[in-house]
Every structure is written in structure tokens, then in C-alpha cells.
Design brief:
Blueprint: E1 23-31, H1 39-64, E2 70-81, E3 84-93, H2 98-115, H3 119-130, H4 132-136, H5 144-157, H6 164-174, H7 180-190
Antiparallel strand pairs: 1-3, 2-3
Helix pairs in contact: 1-2, 1-3, 1-7
């Protein structure tokens, strides 16, 4: 495992690609890897999933504002390398409004840090999570890359491989126990 050193200062890079047709900005927040071995670890994963769903909805609302410099934005939580986990926020911005687009995304992150999410946002995220049930019901139609990702995580990180029935049971057992306070507390782990 090659370690990625921690740092207190912001690191940045400006890149261009003549073949790229759009302009984007990306922000990476790195942490030490979080284990996935216990029920508590899986519960934390659900909390983070809800946080991502709510953050995604905030970013969608940002793109709908009149004259928004952001065309599309998305948060992604995952593994960067084996020695670091990452929370990534990517935004596709108007060509001539890169700084304004980055500022808009950072402003939304600051707003979330300061005020957190609301009960209504969490209720909507939990409702959307129930739609996973439709996906779990179609396990025989799941793309193989889902299983490849599970095998990779198991081999590289020791994460368990969960089948659809187990994952559905865990979700249904845990979803009602997750509180807004817990979701808002996890923000401090990322931002």
C-alpha cells in the first residue's frame, strides 16, 4: 500500500485537454479508510449514503437557479486508493464561469457545514432509499460491474460481499434508526 500523506494546505491543479468538450471543477476531501466489517460500519455507510443523496439534491437545486454557473454537479463517496477514502464533488460549469461555479459549490458546502440538512431532506432521502428495493428485487439483472466492485473491495480492503437479500434486510432493519443528528455529524468527517 502506498500511503497518501495528509496535508493541511489546499492543493490544486489546473489541467486542460483539447479533446474535452466541457469545463469541470473537482474537489477531493480525503480521509483515512473506514472499515466495513461490522453492522455499525454498514450503518455508517447508510448514513453517508443518505448524506450523499441530500447533497446531490442540493446540487440539483443549485443548477436550477437562474443564471447558475453550474450545469451539473455530483458528490461521490468512495475509495481513492487503499490508503485513503475520498469524498469527491464534481461540477460541470459554464465555460466562462469556472471561478463562479467553483464558488457556488463551495458556498453550498459551507451552507451544509454551518446549517446541516433538514428533517424533510432526510425523509426524502429515506424514501428514495426504498427504491433500492426495486433494484434488489431484480438481482438476476444486476450488471456484472456491481459484483466486480464487491469482489475488488473484498480483495483489496477486506469488505464483506453482501448479496441482495442480506443488503435489503440490513437496510430495512437500520433505516428507521438513522437520525438527522447522525447524518449531520458525519459531515465533519468529510468537510
Amino acid at each position: 500500500i502506498y500511503p497518501v500523506p495528509d496535508h493541511s494546505e489546499m492543493l490544486f491543479s489546473i489541467q486542460s485537454d483539447p479533446e474535452e468538450t466541457g469545463t469541470s471543477v473537482g474537489i477531493y476531501f480525503m480521509t483515512d479508510p473506514m472499515p466495513m466489517n461490522t453492522l455499525a460500519d454498514y450503518r455508517r455507510k447508510l448514513i453517508m449514503r443518505f448524506q450523499d443523496v441530500m447533497f446531490q439534491q442540493r446540487l440539483v437545486e443549485l443548477t436550477k437557479k437562474e443564471d447558475s454557473p453550474v450545469l451539473f454537479a455530483r458528490p461521490i463517496e468512495g475509495h481513492f486508493v487503499r490508503s485513503k477514502d475520498v469524498h469527491y464533488v464534481g461540477a460541470w460549469v459554464k465555460e466562462d464561469q469556472v471561478e463562479q461555479g467553483l464558488e457556488a459549490v463551495l458556498t453550498e458546502i459551507a451552507r451544509i457545514e454551518q446549517h446541516g440538512f433538514s428533517e424533510g431532506e432526510l425523509a426524502r432521502a429515506k424514501y428514495q432509499g426504498k427504491r433500492f428495493g426495486e433494484w434488489w428485487d431484480q438481482g438476476d439483472k444486476t450488471w456484472s460491474d456491481y459484483y466486480v466492485g464487491q469482489c475488488q473491495s473484498n480483495f483489496l480492503r477486506g469488505d464483506p460481499i453482501l448479496n441482495h437479500e442480506i443488503e435489503r434486510k440490513l437496510y430495512e432493519e437500520l433505516v428507521s434508526t438513522i437520525t438527522l443528528g447522525e447524518v449531520n455529524d458525519v459531515l465533519g468527517d468529510w468537510f
